[in-house]
Amino acid sequence: MVIDIFAHLISNRIIDLFEEKGGIKFTIPPQNADPETRLELMDKYGVDIQALSQTTPVLTGLSPEDAAEICKLSNEDNYAFCKAYPKRFVNICIISLLDMESALTELDRSVNELDCRGITVSSNQNGKGLDSPEYFPFYEKVTEHELPVLIHPANWESYPLVDMEKGWRMMQIFGWPFDTTQAVWRLIFGGVLDHFPSLKIVMHHLGAMFPFFAGRIETGFKVLQDKLPRDISEYWSNIYGDTAVNGTHAAMPCGYAFFGPDRMLYGSDYPFGFEEGVSFIRDNLSGVKAMDIPEKDMKKILSKNAKKLLKI
Questions:
Q1: Within 190-304, where are the H helices?
Q2: CATH number (domain holding residue 302)
Q3: How do residues 185-197 score in pLDDT, each as one tens digit?
């Protein structure tokens, strides 16, 4: 069995709505919203289940009200897919934390009405860190319902050298993984994981900078060890990584070395990528299967870890 924990669904009404609201522009194959097209691709490459999530950059620059509206409609559209094909899709609901009252209301609705299996949040909330104390009620509800939090990177206020246009798309290519990294760094040092020790975090793009710089992190911690009640490596057990690295095979063993067989999960990042998203499904999957690891570990990465995390 293969479960894709990070597959995006962007419905046509969401595309129209966020363009109307002035959101950033994406190249999104419209057929990603066609269930038959999606199922045909899944069957071709042996993907049994997709966990459907919205991509948080669609919220970039929006007002709290507009962001909440897009989240609400996205969650409904995801649920419609899941309800029509309950054996093939599960719902990962998106929550904007820009307005906490509406965020908590939508979280309750997602759990009670939309069969929510996980929550997607942006790596920053219009520049505010995920460790902000005002978000603690959100983490409390998430842990109460035992829902994993999937962090998706987004734009951040940068200097021109890392600008999307002037910096040849450096924001999207390098800036987004950096923002995922800072988000989890702040969850650790901001006390969120100490306050909510059962919280499970899925880092997009195979943990961003954490696996590659694990030694640098642990060495640098020697001058920060008075900032945390325990060694930084003890927080790794809260963190999971998907395999959405655009098919970079060399990244997979690095992620496996950091996350181990129990916290690494197959994720494609469909429908982005070349060939209208096909390349990300195929190449990320082939990258996982190319690893020389025990069969039992391969099964965990391809499906068992996701089944446990998402209660499938």
A1: 192-195, 204-207, 214-220, 251-259, 278-289, 295-299
A2: 3.20.20.140
A3: 999 999 999 999 9
